[in-house]
Known about the structure:
It contains three helices and two strands.
Amino acid sequence: MELRSQDEVILRVKDAQSSLELLPDTDPREKQAKLTAIQQWQSTLDQLSSNPPLGRVTIRISSRIERWKNTSADVEVRAGDVLVIPKRPSYIMVTGQVFNPTAVSFRPGKGAKCI
């Protein structure tokens, strides 16, 4: 899923870069601004393409195994998998249909609004 999302972002960046290439560049300043913007978009594409998704999966479990054993929460782990269990939440992962997946510091009582 992460790879598919990354591919979609790459396609959107390529489309935006193509739109930039269609902008007029008759004035020397316009031409320089256009070239700079195209280079920045290309740098973004290179970074996106060279950083494959990590393949993170977030699971919720409790100390009472009988509540989640043999349910969809009972995730199979394989050799090489790493489980990280924080003592308490310190960050929130922002992933999916976003340009820059990132972690944001968790602050109790605070929320986020979608624009």
